[in-house]
Automatic annotation (TrEMBL):
<feature type="transmembrane region" description="Helical">
    <location>
        <begin position="94"/>
        <end position="114"/>
    </location>
</feature>
<keyword id="KW-0813">Transport</keyword>
<dbReference type="Pfam" id="PF03609">
    <property type="entry name" value="EII-Sor"/>
</dbReference>
<protein>
    <submittedName>
        <fullName>PTS sugar transporter subunit IIC</fullName>
    </submittedName>
</protein>
<feature type="transmembrane region" description="Helical">
    <location>
        <begin position="135"/>
        <end position="160"/>
    </location>
</feature>
<feature type="transmembrane region" description="Helical">
    <location>
        <begin position="180"/>
        <end position="200"/>
    </location>
</feature>
<feature type="transmembrane region" description="Helical">
    <location>
        <begin position="212"/>
        <end position="241"/>
    </location>
</feature>
<keyword id="KW-0598">Phosphotransferase system</keyword>
<dbReference type="GO" id="GO:0005886">
    <property type="term" value="C:plasma membrane"/>
</dbReference>
<keyword id="KW-1003">Cell membrane</keyword>
<dbReference type="InterPro" id="IPR050303">
    <property type="entry name" value="GatZ_KbaZ_carbometab"/>
</dbReference>
<keyword id="KW-1133">Transmembrane helix</keyword>
<feature type="transmembrane region" description="Helical">
    <location>
        <begin position="53"/>
        <end position="74"/>
    </location>
</feature>
<dbReference type="InterPro" id="IPR004700">
    <property type="entry name" value="PTS_IIC_man"/>
</dbReference>
<keyword id="KW-0812">Transmembrane</keyword>
<keyword id="KW-0762">Sugar transport</keyword>
<keyword id="KW-0472">Membrane</keyword>
Length: 252
């Protein structure tokens, strides 16, 4: 399956939107997530169900994702958009797509750190314009120039990778053969455990782990689906927060 020019354009554009400020509350919080990215790519390529499956599987890798202090261990958005696009266009197994998404996410750190480094130049521009009282210059330095830079370094790499990447992926897979592909599938199948482990590490504690085991028991032994467990969790969370407020109000 080849990706057309317009399809590659949309995939790259959504990747840019995932990091841009144009849609308040939509970019980083929603479009940046691999599950959403995979679904969008699936819609663009005409296979939304498989796109959502691939995106959700990639999302497992980033359950414990934290970007603190300007650091970025990997780029979930790039793994989601480009990883799903290459997986669907190349007909990859979901687990093989995971093995492909990991290095793609790491390559996204190059875009991130390049952006942060070059954006520091615009800070000095803004300082100079502020001293001059030039409001138009401040807007250019704080908004226009950084977004032109972000569009350039995020849109074009994803556009060309989406357009020409499937042929390269197919050629590499044909060269590696079935045994190597099987190894990638096995490795990819193990990777979600890493994301789950990181998530457990972040939530582990005497006040939170009982709720985790309660959800686990509900899923395994009571055979509840995710929606039912989510509703029960919402009700429990409501009463826990309410009781804590009452205790805080009483001063005990």
């Amino acid at each position: 399956m080849n990706i057309g020019v317009f399809q590659a354009f949309l995939i790259a554009l959504f990747y840019y939107f995932s990091q841009s400020p144009w849609f308040v509350g939509l970019g980083y919080w929603i479009l940046y997530r691999p599950l959403v990215a995979g679904t969008i790519v699936g819609i663009i390529l005409g296979n939304p169900v498989q796109g959502a499956i691939v995106g959700a599987t990639i999302n497992l890798l980033y359950l414990g994702f934290i970007s603190a202090g300007g650091s970025l261990p990997g780029d979930p958005a790039l793994a989601g958009y480009l990883g799903t696009a290459l997986a669907l266009s190349s007909g990859l197994d979901v687990n093989a797509a995971l093995a492909l998404a990991v290095p793609i996410g790491l390559l996204g750190t190059v875009i991130w750190f390049g952006r942060m480094t070059l954006d520091s130049i615009f800070v000095h521009w803004a300082d100079r314009y502020a001293e001059e009282g030039n409001m138009r210059g401040i807007v250019i330095a704080n908004v226009i120039a950084p977004q032109i830079l972000l569009f350039t370094i995020s849109f074009f790499p994803v556009f060309f990778a989406s357009l020409y990447g499937p042929q390269a992926v197919k050629a590499v897979l044909d060269f590696l053969g079935a045994n190597i592909l099987h190894m990638l599938i096995v490795i990819g199948g193990m990777m979600p455990a890493l994301g789950i482990a990181l998530n457990l590490r972040s939530i582990s504690g005497p006040d939170t782990m009982p709720f985790f085991f309660l959800g686990f028991l509900g899923a395994v032994y009571l055979k509840l689906d995710v929606i039912a467990i989510g509703i029960f969790a919402l009700v429990i969370a409501f009463y826990v927060v309410k009781n804590r407020r009452v205790v805080s109000a009483d001063g005990n």
